Amino acid sequence: MDIVTQGLLGATVAVSGARKAEIKQAAWMGSFAGILADADILIRSGSDPLLNLEFHRHFTHALIFIPLGALIAAGLIWLLTRLFSSTDLSFRRMYYYAFLGYMLSGVLDAFTSYGTYLYWPFYDDRIAWSLVSIIDPLFSGILIVALVFAIKRQWTNATRIGLGLCVFYLAFSYAQSQAAYKAMTALASSRGHEVQRHVVKPTFGNVLLWRTVYLHDEVYYIDAVNTAFNNKIYSGTSVPALVMNDAYPQLDASSQQYRDIQRFDYFSDGFTATSAEQPNLVIDVRYSMIPTSAKPMWGVEIDPEQPDTHAPFVTFRDREPGQYRLFIDMVLGRDT
Known about the structure:
Blueprint: H1 3-16, H2 23-36, H3 51-55, H4 66-84, H5 91-102, H6 105-110, H7 137-153, H8 157-190, E1 197-202, E2 209-216, E3 219-226, E4 232-234, E5 238-240, H9 244-247, H10 256-267, E6 272-274, E7 281-284, E8 298-301, E9 313-315, H11 323-331
Antiparallel strand pairs: 1-2, 2-3, 3-4, 3-5, 6-7, 7-8, 8-9
C-alpha cells in the first residue's frame, strides 16, 4: 500500500508488542522499519526504464528477507539514536521493534492488486490477492485511531483491537470480491462468453466498487460491479489482447524492445493489450482511472524503427472532464 499506511501498520504492530514505558519508542521504530521495505523503489536505471518495475516490491518484501530487513532497520535506528537522540533501549530491543514493524510490510502489499514477491526466491511470481486499493482511507484510518489512542492512553490493547478491525475489514473485502466475481461470471455467461482468465480488483479508495476484467477469445472485457447496491453492473468496453506476432511482426524476438514487451507483460501478469488510440503503446488493462474504461494508467512505448533501444515506460495521470464525478456516481450506485 502507500508508504504512509506502511508506516502506520509498522508502528501499530510494534506498539502492540511494546512495554508500556516504551510505547512511543516502539511507535517510531516500528514505523521506520515498516517504511524501509519500500526503499527498493530507489533501485532504478537511467538507461532501463523497466528496472524499477521489476524490483519495486521485490526481495525486500519477501517473507525470507524479514530478519535481514529488520536487522538493517535496527542498525539504522541505532545510528539515528546515537546521532539525534538518547535512549536506554538495548540493540536487542531495537531489533525486536524493528522486526515487528517490518514483518507485515510485504504481507500488506500482497493484499493489493499491485502485489509483491512474497515467496521469493522459492516462487518468482507476484502475489496479489486484490482485496484493498493501493490507497484505502478507511483501512489507514483504523490504524491511525488505534495508534493515537494507544499512545495517548498508554494502552497497547488499542493497537491490538485496531489490528483485529483491519483483519475484519479484509474479511469483509474478501466477501465483496467474491460477490463481484460471481456478478462478473454471470455477466460473461449472459454474453455467451467463457471466462478464460480474469482479475477482480477494488477501485481507488474503497471496497464497494470493483473493476472486473476477463478474457474471452483473445479479447479482454472490462466492466465494473458495485457490491453495495445489489451487485449493480456498469458495462464497460473491450480491447483485443496483445498477440506479439500480430501486433509487432517487424520486431525480432532477440531485439531489446521485444524483450521489454515481455518484461512488461510479466509485470502485468499477462493482462496486456495495444492501445486503440496509440498503436505503439502496450498497456496494462488491469488499471484505469475509470473502472469501465480501457484508457491506461501506464504502458510502454514501442518504436519498431529502433528495436534495440529500451522501450520507455510512460504513465498517464491527466483526468478528463467529468471523470471524477463519474467515478463517484459509480461508487454511490447511481445510473451513469
